[in-house]
Amino acid sequence: MYKVAFLPGDGIGQDLKEVVKLFRDKIEEKYGFSFELNELPIGGKAIDSFGDPLPPDTLKECKKSDAVFLIAVGGPKWDNNPPNLRPEAGLLKLRKSLNVFCNIRPIKLSKHLTHLSCLKCETVDKGLDIIILRELTEGLYFGEPRGIYTQPDGSKVAINTMSYSSTTIEKFAKIGFDLAMSRKKSLTSVDKANVLENSRLWREVVENLSKSYPEVKLDHLYVDNAALQMIYNPNQFDVIITENLFGDILSDEAAALVGSLGLLPSASIGDNKPFLYEPVHGSAPSIAGKNMANPIATIFSIALMLRLSFERNDIAFDLENAVEKTLEMGIGTADLKMKNTIGTREFANEVLKNL
Ligand code: NAI
Ligand code: MG
User: Fold this and answer.
1) For residues 244 and 162, what is the distance between their CA atoms, to the nearest angstrom?
2) How far is CA 115 from CA 37, 236, 255, 259, 339, in A?
3) Which ligand is nearest to the CA of 134?
4) What is the pTM of this model?
5) Where does the record place the site Important for catalysis (predicted)?
6) Which of 25, 252, 290, 337 is catalytic?
7) What CATH number belongs to 1-100+265-355?
């Protein structure tokens, strides 16, 4: 049986914890496929109990697991703590320790939710279904040298270095090509090759790799144009691959197209298991404990885990369809602004009925 390190965390993480358990049980009952949820402390709750946002035992258990499933950390109670005693410190350390270099962000908007998008309904009348892959371990965020230096004349200069190795680009891009093969066989690589050497290397590596994927239609786009096209016509994209900083910005831009953070899942994967699954949203303190949190991001994250870590694309697909069917009924949590607003538990139960 697969072992999942289960880190519900803070705020609505506690509301959504029950949803994950319900789905686990239903999947076992319906498909005879089971995974064990090993609940572990992280974030604010772990600071309160152990004085550490990522207790050593939590990390040790995560590394021994087949997958890590986290909901959200943080809250006002810990906002004034020193940096190393803040909930996010635990999450950042976890991501780094698992060495997950590819962040996968599906941007999915149901055709029943087009009223939520910041775009005109006509632009997204069929909904949205694109995936952004962001490289997570190199680029401007990690390149050396970095720092703020004082020059001989007393003025200061600040330096960050954008650096990419062909090895990283290649293993990252390969995930994009493989994903494209499983979807519409269309891949867009986003860079700034007219200005940056990093991007020229990026393009060269991606072009070379594309020879092994003759069926995939590959396009290159400069990042400024990609940002523009994302607003004009997001449905022209299927799978997008891009480096760390560009991916950070483009994935937040794409989230606005969907209109509620409660809809967006993510997966972060690396060379070795375990991979990390988490909804994109945070702990939403203002709605925590009120049975108001939208469970869709969590349900879609379970689907990603089934697909990418447990090779159960069939169950993942059924889960996504059950959510779609439920939305078609005109019901949803408050953030979805549907005809009928229902609570977290009630919505989750409707999805389970439709599974
Ligand atoms: P947030 O994602 O928690 O909330 C932003 C807005 O979206 C709020 O209006 C919230 O009510 C709404 N929202 C979020 N998830 C929702 C859901 N499932 N259903 C319905 N509405 C939802 O981001 P915010 O407010 O910036 O941060 C709150 C806390 O969460 C902070 O302590 C922050 O550090 C932490 N955080 C944690 C993250 C993580 O664990 N990965 C990511 C982002 C923030
Ligand atoms: Mg961001």
Assistant:
1) 10
2) 36, 20, 14, 9, 12
3) 2
4) 0.94
5) 141, 192
6) 252
7) 3.40.718.10
Tell me if 262 CB under 6 Å of ligand 1.
Answer: yes
pLDDT tens track for 48-107? 999 999 999 999 999 999 999 999 999 999 999 998 999 999 998 999 899 999 999 999
Q: Which atom of ligand 1 is nearest to the CA of 294?
A: 19
- Which residue of the set 31, 141, 171, 273 is catalytic? 141
**40, amino acid identity:** L
C-alpha separations of 67 from 2, 4, 164 in Å: 8, 5, 28
Ligand 1 atom 7: the closest Cα is on which residue? 261
Asked whether this complex has an ipTM greater than 0.95, the answer is yes
CB 279 within 8 A of CB 265: yes
Q: In the chain, which stretches have pLDDT less than 70? A: none
53 annotated binding-site participant: no
Nearest to 255 by CA among 53, 133, 118: 118
Peptide bond into 145 cis (omega under 30): yes
Q: Is 281 in the pocket of ligand 1 (CB under 6 A)?
A: yes
Q: Where in the chain is the domain with CATH 3.40.718.10?
A: 1-100+265-355, 118-258
248 marked as part of a ligand binding site = yes
Q: How far is CA 115 from the centre of its chain?
A: 23
CATH number for the segment(s) 118-258: 3.40.718.10
CA–CA gap between residue 50 and residue 68 (Å, rounded)? 20
Q: How confident is the model over 252-287, as pLDDT tens digits?
A: 899 899 989 999 999 999 999 999 999 999 999 999
CA of 171 to the centre of ligand 2 (A): 23
Does 48 count as an annotated binding residue? Answer: no
